[in-house]
Amino acid sequence: MIPLTLRVNGRERRVLVEPRQSLLRVLRDELGLTGAKEGCHRGECGSCTVLMDGVPLYACMTLAPEAEGREITTVEGLLDGEALGPVQDAFAEHDAFQCGFCTSGQIVAVEGLLRANPQPSLEEIRTGVSGNLCRCGAYPNIFRAAGRAAELRAGRGGDS
Ligand code: FES
Ligand code: FES
User: Fold this and answer.
1) Would you list the domain boundaries of the chain?
2) In what order do the strands lie in the sheet with 11-17?
3) For residue range 74-122, what is the model confidence (pLDDT) as tens digits?
4) Can you tell me the distance from the alpha carbon of 61 to that of 148, in angstroms, rounded to the nearest whole number?
5) What is the second-level CATH architecture of the domain 2-77?
6) Is the minimum distance from the CB of 133 to ligand 1 under 6 angstroms?
7) Distance, CA 28 to ligand 2 centroid (Å)?
8) pTM for the full predicted model
């Protein structure tokens, strides 16, 4: 076991973990942040997506020690105080889910896309969430929600 200090959603968190442990397992099992979902745990579905220094990645394919010294943001970190953040709001507004299992990963992927490209085209949105599978096929509403999220973020002045 090794001690790690992780910075997650703006807070320093100390954990004792096996070096082979994935960031996803540490977030969920050690820190109680269950927004990132474990779908495949082998880099295929995107349900575990988090931001590392603002860039989306699969937490299941990231070793926890690799996250030390980086800024990790999970879907819980996209709240605006007690209220939904703009990307979360847009997903609710456009009913961009069915079972919801992929949703937190989709929201984080859209947040990462909009941080890099605040006004994406439809094609850029499609590419931005292409690493996030939705077995329910909610894609049309996800794409609409991403476009709406860009508007909401612009109105609220930037990052969620
Ligand atoms: S759980 Fe990480 S990509 Fe599927
Ligand atoms: S809403 Fe069910 S997997 Fe996407």
Assistant:
1) 2-77, 79-156
2) 11-17, 2-8, 71-73, 49-52, 55-58
3) 999 999 999 999 999 999 999 999 999 999 999 999 999 999 999 999 9
4) 30
5) Roll (3.10)
6) no
7) 20
8) 0.96
